Amino acid sequence: NENDDDGDNRKSFCDEAKDELKILLQAPRRYFDFVIISCRTPYFENFGYCYVFPAVFFPVFVIYTISSAGNSILQYALLRDLIENKMDILPFVVGVTDATKAFITIVIGLSQKWNVFTSEIVDKPFGGILASVLYIIGSLVLAISTIGPSLSMKLILYIIGSLVMSRGTSLIWSITSQVIKDHGKHQIDNQILREREMNEENMLMSKNTDVDAKISQIQVLFRFAASAVGPIFATRVLLQNLSASNSYLGLAFLVCCLCTFLILTVRRIHHSNQVDKEDDHDNRIEIGWREVLPAWFQQKICCCCFSSIGSGRSTIDTETGYFNAAWVDCGLLNGLTEVVRSGYERILCLRALSMGLSSTQLAHVLAITGATAVATFWLSDIADRNRRLASFLSFFVLGLGHFGLGMSTSFNGVLISAFLFGIGEGMSTGLRDLHKKDYRHSKGPLGDMSRLFISKKLDLDLTKDNSIFIESEAKVLRRKVQGLASPWADWCGILNSIAVGIIGRYCGMRFASFTYASIAAFAVYISIAVIPDSRPPFVLGKNDLPMWKNWLYCNRKTPTASYVALQPMKLIYS
Q: Which of 105, 285, 333, 360 is the most buried (most CB within 10 A)?
């Protein structure tokens, strides 16, 4: 094509790649500067002995060390005791129990009562008290699960204990990721502002630094570090001195110590009145599944329902499926991440045990994965500039890890697979949190859509006089849309557990590894051609175009299929 400008595009692509590489190589310095500032910023204004870095990141490391020890080595050691070392049924038992726990979690989430209750107590000292009580009860139930009269009763006690413990763990994570983190971000923002006023030329952090993103990424970094320490702690300390069931009681003691620290910290934050409270007023707009499910799907349901009673009327209107495109993209990435990333540890443990590896060798493999993720976490700096490129690279390398695990026939092969997967996890450090934050941002993919929806719903003009009120309503609306996307990860978690159990039981864990490599390949395509770059400011016709469009699409100006409906009132319902 004479009018084609592929040569210019290639040149610009090479230049952009060089610039991206140059910026990426500077990422360790940016993280180092951020760590320096967080280490010298006091966590409380009137208490100079506690600083942001240990106050924010130490609880994350401790809780995930405990969680990784309990959810990996101890979990499989306890299940082997429950089934009396019948290794042929272990994958099936793991799949069924995990799927049951995920299904019960979805049922609890649908009622919203637990979520509302925890949101009310998360910033109060009672939140830490309840978390420790739940974890202790769960560990006691797991401790007595081995003395059940039958295998079914043992597994029921195991499921109940695991669920109660997970409720306590999730509440601790909410405290650390919301109350503790938000107060630390507030203090760092004030510190940067003070340094900017005193000496702007010698500032460590630039004006455009996303403090929230850096905190999220370093929190995930400490999670990776904990995943390297937790399995070794379980094998070298707990299992050498205690049984698998009693080891959970030792973890409960550590949780009580951590919750004591959190209770004292939250109490001091509560009294200092320095936490910025969001304006969570009750808005007048309520949305549900009608606004996020596809319009064609609801149209078919309505036609079937009304035709069955002899009427051809339909309830489809301009609000039906309005947020479907953003709902699909937000949920799809979370669901694929749940399958590809979260499924690896389960696949790795079952594959290693099926190969006859010991618990100590398995702990070393998990430690290699966590240590590699810690060493390569700075690659996640790519996500600060392009979320979609970071998704593509991370899913590609994660897929190589799954494929390598399927090809492995020895302990060294498993180590190589763990190393590859650790690189993929390092690349995706904090990516899911950033993606969620983008969809809550006023300039993210849901920004203009939410404000337009509010203005149409309340019959208000998008003028300066109404902009503040409309944005306050839209802010709450965006959180509701994102909340409706959470079942993607929950249902994918159920399918993930069932698939591992069935495939591992009847086809073998090697075939299961290749299956997950195929899912990772699908996630790579989705990252390139479907999911948009959600990084604010989101521009329709730019962020939603497929990446490397000249290589994948004949029509280079065709936007991503899901975001054709970004303006449904104009494109579909006119």
A: 333
